[in-house]
Amino acid sequence: MWGELTTLYNRIPLVTKVETDLTKYTTDKALKGMFTVVAEEELKIRKDPAARG
Fold it and tell me: What's the pTM value of the predicted model, to 2 decimals?
């Protein structure tokens, strides 16, 4: 159902296309979130090396 709906949506002119593969979409979002958290932790460690752990 998701694929059908997004395919129909993507056919509408002048709209931003959306990912039709729900598994790929959720995996990409999860990885982006994970790397955001890692980057925040790294920044904390660079400011205060004792913040490790």
Answer: 0.63
